[in-house]
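Lab notebook, bench 4. Continuing the backlog of folding jobs that were queued last week. Each job is logged with the same field layout so the records can be merged later without manual cleanup. Today's entry covers Ferredoxin-dependent glutamate synthase, a 547-residue chain. Filled in by technician R.K.

JOB TYPE: sequence-to-structure
TARGET: Ferredoxin-dependent glutamate synthase
LENGTH: 547
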Amino acid sequence: MEKTSTFPLRYTAFALSIVGFFVSLAISLYVGAGYIFPIIFAAFSALGTYDMLQRRHTVSRNYPILANFRYLFESVGPEIRQYFIQSDTEERPFSREQRTIVYQRAKNVLDKRPFGSQLSMYEEGFEWMNHSLTPTRITDSDFRIVIGKNCKHPYSASVFNISAMSFGALSANAITSLNTGAKMGGFYHDTGEGSISRYHKQPGGDLVWEIGSGYFGCRNKDGTFNADMFRTNASLDQVKMIELKLSQGAKPGHGGILPGAKVTPEIAEARGVSVGEDCVSPASHSAFSTPVELLEFIDHLRDLSGGKPVGFKLAIGHPWEWFAIVKAMLETGRKPDFIVVDGGEGGTGAAPLEFINRLGTPMTEALLLVHNTLVGTNLREDIAIGAAGKVTSAFNIARTIALGADWCNSARGYMFSLGCIQALNCHTGRCPSGVATQDPRRGEKLDVELKSQRVYNFHKNTLDALRHLLEASGLRHTSELGPEHVVRRVSKTEVHTYLDLFDFLQPGALLDGETGLPVFDRYWPKADSNSFEPPEFILKLRETKLQ
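JOB STATUS: finished
OUTPUT FIELD FOLLOWS
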């Protein structure tokens, strides 16, 4: 194809900038006016010249000056969609309505709505609770459950707590505010795998110490577990429970690294690493490699802690691995005091797109599998279950407990209560609200006294809303919630309660034989308490595509 001989219109902005510079300069020199316009046109001319000469961006070479406006609008596209285009009920990842209810409850302002629901009640997937003609009267919304009832030091936990978020992912002021609010409200604050920092300790709120594969706060120089350091931290009165992190919903099986440049003296102090040294969380643990060893390690942690509840957090992946852990419980008699199920819809500061979107079982299915397995093996009465995954409202709590959980955790809900605006800049360090950043100039702007009160308010007002739901449903405590209380629309003309929609095992059903459910009947008999390896028939499937 021959080159066109006419002047390309796409160069018009560049050409006008050059012409504008000379014309405005001449006028300024002749009339004696200021030089503001020549400077502006000169800047655009310089930009256009740079665009034409650089070789990285073809669009900029073809559209000098104009292409920069395209990059500008692209960079603020998420904000434009979030604030001006998306509807109040569109979840990306949290809808404006979901965020607004948190903001309002955190600020203790009116959270009522006029004129009826904005939700589409006849769309597939819509859920609600059934109410009773004989509502109850509940005097206290501080719903609590006992975790580790067979331990020397059982813990009475709120049914709504702060999920794992590390110091290093969140700012110092954010951590201080969360823990202060937790102390005011009598609920727990999960440390995240970044261990216990000075900002967790200062307020004195209840802590669940999360220990990941990096063993931060209880590690040797080579990254292996250090029992003496663990005993020291675990003996703190603030530490009520210990949570061993096997995996998290947002990036299961991934591990992570905090670059040495971000390891400040305060982070190094909390994690037990050197300042400026890369802080590595391996994809798997070094303290154990089999289900039996996992349970032995949990018993070891319980002994070192002086008898505090010890459990683990996991996102459900291969079912035979979870079944192997439960088989190990049956064969050894060793059991965790609790299990926290982290749904695949969980959040994190940064993770690959495929991990966030397509890896890990969502909370509903994961929670059902864990609950059913424990019921089917007669272990459920001894092991409490927590659950996390986009829990921000009283209904979220109620539906999760109805599915089998004893309590719920929330991370992003409490971030919203701190003032998070869902800017989606958590991984850049440029959080505009000072929550997810280690830039002191940003983080210090977060007012601890004000935000801790909002954390407290959010917890209190959400549980007050939960109390009203229970009263309307004729219940007296969250422990009475069951699958019969929540209904889901499955088509325009059909609805089912969770009791009819999902399969629930009877106590001991797995021990008695076939359940009639493929996931149990196929994988449970083949799971091995001494190995996380796939069953033989799975290994054979991996050898060929001829299946």
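OBSERVATION: The two ends are 52 Å apart (CA to CA).
SIGNED: R.K.
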